Amino acid sequence: MALSAGQPDALREELLVRAPATARRPRHSATLRQEAWLAYGLLTPTLLVIVFLVAYPFASAIYLSLQDKMVGAPGRFVALDNYLDLLRDEVFLRTAWNSVLYTAVAIALKFALGLTMALVLDQERRVNNFFRTLLFVPWAVPVVIVALNWRWIFDDLSGLLNNFLITFHLTSDIISWLSDPRLAMGCVIAVVVWSGTPFYSMTFLAGLQAIPKELYEAAEIDGASVVQQFFFVTVPRLRTIFLTTVMLSTIWTATNLQFVLILTRGGPASRTEIFPHLAYTTALGARRLGMGAAVSLVFFPLLVVLIIVLTRRMLRQADE
Amino acid sequence: MPRTRSGSRRLLKWIGNVLLVLLLVWTLVPFYWMIVTSLKPDREIYGFEATLYPHQPTLAGYARVFTTTPFLKYVRNSAIIAGANTLASLLFGCLGAYALARLRFPGRALIARGLVVSYLVPPALLFIPLFAVLSVLRLIDTHQGLILTYFSFSVPFSTWLLMGYFHSVPLELEEAALVDGCGRLGTLFRIILPMSLPALAVVAFFAFTQSWNEFLYANVFVNSVEVRTITTGLTLFIVEDVFFWGPMMGAAFLSALPPLVVYLIFQRWVVKGLTLGAVKG
Known about the structure:
The complex is a heterodimer. By secondary structure, chain A is mainly alpha-helical. The longest helix of chain A has 36 residues, at 29-64. Chain A has helices at residues 2-5, 9-17, 29-64, 81-87, 90-122, 128-140, 143-153, 160-167, 184-209, 213-221, 226-255, 258-263, 275-285, 289-298, 300-319. Helices cover 73% and strands 0% of the residues of chain A. Chain B contains 13 helices and 2 strands; from the N terminus they run H-H-H-H-H-H-H-H-H-H-H-H-E-E-H. Chain B is mainly α. A two-stranded antiparallel ribbon of chain B has the order 1-2. Helices cover 75% and strands 1% of the residues of chain B. Chains A and B meet through helix 2, helix 3, helix 5, helix 6 and helix 7 of A and helix 1, helix 4, helix 5, helix 6 and helix 7 of B.
């Protein structure tokens, strides 16, 4: 392990290319050529999808972002004007700050809550499977339904939250959860956390259960306290899972516009506006496709780093 | 006085149980509110007389969903699109994964990389250009258009997941079949697929739920009732800022059922597919 950890990534991918599966057959060039043709034939649908539904649209998003194209009208090439306009736009700058805040806080809370959930479910307990099933249910509910359901919970006059607070005399005023500028972002994040936590707990729990119990026994004999066991046995073993989960979740959280679209539409006064939602309203509300593409691409460089790192990790894991 | 080890164990257990209760409340209360709302008469839903539980439970909300809204049409559309996407993802995934796992050809590593990247590129980046693509193909507002665009997330994922699984199927069985004159595709369908049923189940699960739950593309690429899926249909229960919360929560509950049921059936296998094999064991 120590040896292979030092190998450069390129070498690992070389290993992937020379999969052991095919090594035993004779290297006859005619057979090989036949094999290659068969492979391309089998991969045709997949390749068409990658090229025409991912690669081409992505490239054309970049091209679109350099035009002043509106829906239903031809565009003019404007070079970087869209991007320069964005940098001068106050709503855009607010959106940038919101997006960072929203993503960072939501990820941190999902992580903390997800880890707590996983640790609690890893304890010995009767009917634990049942509790696990219940706690993971939000993951299986469509995001739109989650968002609608919470919008109803936050409702000013008749929602559960105000209803509950007033019934038990915890407040006498009606709280406008989603239209109060100080509360709206917090509410959106709460919903994102509710919906996204099970993904964290699922991966963390799988990691926890893969740790051999002997490690804890050995630590116990060495006199390690429960807290020390957590930091010196559990955390190091889960590090890879922590990283992968957080990176995947960052991509998905930062680019999900459904919560904002249904809960607040970016309001009040752009307090909950985030990039993907701004791109959506620019492209489809204001019908400015070029500008919308520019907005959606502005946050992409950050995601590229995550995508590259994640792709490497996944290829490496497939290799093992 | 220093706490004894068994004492701290018991304390930990207690903290765990308290946390479990809190987490259960946090997780389940929204479901409670959804179901309870769907069972209330209107006067218990709105205003000062709103109640925390239904005093006079009724199914009138559900009756309104079925009689006054195109709910069933939305469900039909979602079923058609999710079903077609599931079948296609399984087929394309199996064929592509077999090639990547068993055949030797130039460009293999590149294609494997392309699969992962495709899976990670977020829809929020693709919906604007895909809108242009579908307009050119005249597939806006059609079932085919949505099925096609859903391939962009389900096919790369299925292929990747199955590739990993096919790698783990022992080669010897297959070689014997090849020697016996069973062709390449014959070995795929007769040897590998029967051994890969759990992986096929996971692929079907993800393809189905992702398509059923998808909102962004369905919202942007479809306008008419005849094609509209359930996720975007639900938001139409809001008419000019007037919410019909009773029927909406009823419809929301019903449309969450298919993914919930398949989740309950497949949950044991689901975790493995979650992070594209990021978690081992």
